[in-house]
Amino acid sequence: MTIANYISSVSLVSFLKQVSFCTLFFLINQNISAQTKLDSLINVAHLKVYEDPMSAIKMGEQIFNEASIAKTKINALMLISNGYLSKREYEKSLEYSLKTREFFDEIDDPKVKISVLNNIGMQHQQLLIYDKAIENLDEALKWAEKVTHKDSIASILGTNYAIRGFIYREQMSCDIALNYFNKSISEFKKALKVKKTMNANLSILNYNKGNCELQVSQIDSARVNFNKSIKYAKVINANSLYAFAKKGLSEVYTIEGNYNQAINELNEALKVSDSVGDLVLDQGIYKNLSDNYLAINNQAQYQLYFGKYSKTQKQIRKKERSTINSSITSLLEETKLQINQKKKELQKLQIVLLILIVFSLLFLSNRIIKSRKNYKKALKNLEKFKK
């Protein structure tokens, strides 16, 4: 090979390396760009969870199929889970929430782990399996302790406190729940500076605060919080949250004996609830309308809305029976997974013990063989000595 040919071949190799590097760099950046786009889509989809849950679910499925990293897949699954939760399809919601566990060990980011555990805790809370819910929420807080800058996890801490508030409201009292709702609101307000979606969470929390305050006869405080809930819902055009808050405000007027104003608020809620398709919301509006029409002795309207309330109640009960069956199945599957995991761990231990036993036997066999050789050698030496 001539010097010129050698230089030419080196240049070609160098050129090919540069091309390969540039191609690799382009593909990596293309992948990062794709992931960034998917993460942005998740943020957009979260805004649709309460307003158009089916759209959010479809976007979540698309993101999950296109994602190449575990973190994005988990976020997509949680988005789908929240979409079904918004539709009150608890069976589907729990199914997608539990799927996130499949990718749990593939991620190092404690923030994502906290979100996963919060989400699973929330599903169990919805199904009234409170011990499992608290177990997951406690594990989430253990991961939260590893995060140095707590402001960076304000939204997920807010979620953790909110779910605890819902649980303690049912298990203990509204006074204890209000403490957790206030802690949750404080965290969500920190996150609101960078996340518009926090308006939805703040609407939900203020609505639930208002409900608790009605139970402990803090009427004026309840009115304030229902109005706050309406304000936050309007920011993101969340019809379901707006309707729930209006329903809550109507209850304040009913307690005060202002039945006509209560009916006005409920009619406002009814205008937007049709586009939501939430049976629990519809049931609450119909029940309150029937009660208020009865209070002003409007029998025709009372009969109309009481009939709608009864029909919706039957639909909800049918759905609840299906959900209970699903939750039992899910618990059995979860227990089966835990048993299989224990079996795998036991199998590993058995393999290790077997290896140790084999090595021990080989070692002992070797020692016995050497001892026999030494014994025979000693006998020969002894015979020689006798001769």
UniProtKB/TrEMBL annotation:
<protein>
    <recommendedName>
        <fullName>Tetratricopeptide repeat-containing protein</fullName>
    </recommendedName>
</protein>
<dbReference type="InterPro" id="IPR019734">
    <property type="entry name" value="TPR_rpt"/>
</dbReference>
<feature type="transmembrane region" description="Helical">
    <location>
        <begin position="349"/>
        <end position="369"/>
    </location>
</feature>
<feature type="repeat" description="TPR">
    <location>
        <begin position="243"/>
        <end position="276"/>
    </location>
</feature>
<keyword id="KW-1133">Transmembrane helix</keyword>
<keyword id="KW-0802">TPR repeat</keyword>
<dbReference type="InterPro" id="IPR011990">
    <property type="entry name" value="TPR-like_helical_dom_sf"/>
</dbReference>
<keyword id="KW-0472">Membrane</keyword>
<keyword id="KW-0812">Transmembrane</keyword>
